[in-house]
Write a structure and sequence with these properties.
The chain is 25% helix and 31% strand. It contains 5 helices and 15 strands. It has helices at 15-31, 51-57, 64-73, 145-153, 169-190, and strands at 2-9, 36-38, 79-88, 91-100, 103-109, 126-129, 132-136, 158-162, 193-197, 199-202, 208-209, 214-216, 222-225, 232-237, 251-254. Strands 1, 2, 3, 4, 5, 10, 11, 14 and 15 form a 9-stranded mixed sheet that branches. The chain has a 6-stranded mixed sheet with strand order 6-7-8-9-12-13, covered by helices on one side. α1 packs parallel to α3 (64-73). The longest helix has 22 residues, at 169-190. The chain is globular and about 45 Å long. The relative contact order is 0.16.
């Protein structure tokens, strides 16, 4: 199975533009034979820790606008994991959708949201892609080992970790290396492959993100790491069938 982690410039309140980027990237991914593509946390509308902003940006999964958007950007055979703020009735979630062939096929809600007003998710679904099983933990979820363990116990061999490490400059510096270390720890503890997709750039408040996208093997070895401060794509060829824990393979990093 071929996987890809997309490190992309953060966009804010620009859903149509984000949709165009996703459509471009997923068309490229399909041409490259990529089976599973991962995009950053809250990439679709832009991340925020402010509840009022997040609520204004949030979309319901049954919103016709979102359905039409997904039909455009995820029309092909590549499965996409895309972060967004989701509303369910009065509740707000930091979620990632799983989309393929023009429709949403699943969703995971962050179990340990740091974003104000977001409700913790309680479900840990696992999906199949070919002969592999994968699940999702969003950003800070990896601080809590049980979240990844729940996926591994259901047979996941790959954990997708959408992240958004756009922080105040001193915090961005502080969390860049620990962010990568958490991926390695997760991989070793679960014996799963782990891939993370982060944003780069800044926002109007002067916050920045270095970009901490990476792919890690079940032994905790970083097999691919994105360039800092710029957009990048990491592509990796997993075996056709999910192997026993600890299998390692050469990674290929491709910048676009």
């Amino acid at each position: 199975m071929r996987i890809a982690a997309f490190q992309r410039l953060a966009l804010f309140d620009a859903v149509e533009q984000a949709g165009e980027v996703l459509a471009r990237d997923l068309a490229w991914a399909e041409a490259q034979g990529i089976n599973l593509a991962l995009f950053p946390e809250c990439y679709l509308q832009g991340h925020s820790y402010n509840e009022a902003i997040a609520r204004r940006r949030a979309l319901s999964l049954d919103d016709p606008y979102l359905s039409a958007l997904v039909a455009r950007f995820a029309a092909g055979r590549t499965t996409a994991v895309v972060g967004l703020f989701e509303k369910r009735g009065d509740a707000l979630y930091n979620s990632s959708i799983v989309a393929k062939a023009g429709r949403i096929v699943g969703v995971y809600a962050k179990a340990h949201p740091l974003e104000s007003g977001c409700t913790p998710g309680k479900d840990f679904p696992v999906w199949e892609e070919g002969h592999w099983r994968f699940g999702i933990n969003i950003c800070a979820d990896l601080r809590y080992p049980y979240t990844a363990r729940r996926l591994a116990e259901q047979g996941a061999g790959l954990i997708c970790n959408p992240i958004n490490l756009m922080l105040r400059p001193h915090k961005a510096e502080k969390w860049h290396k620990p962010g990568i270390s958490s991926l390695r720890t997760c991989a070793r503890h679960t014996r799963c492959w782990v891939m993370a997709s982060d944003v780069v750039g800044g926002n109007d408040d002067g916050w920045v993100s270095y970009g901490s996208s990476a792919i890690v093997d079940p032994n905790g070895v970083i097999v691919a790491k994105a360039k800092p401060y710029c957009e990048d794509v990491l592509v990796f060829d997993l075996p056709d069938r999910q192997p026993e824990r600890g299998f390692a393979q050469k990674a290929v990093a491709i910048a676009t």
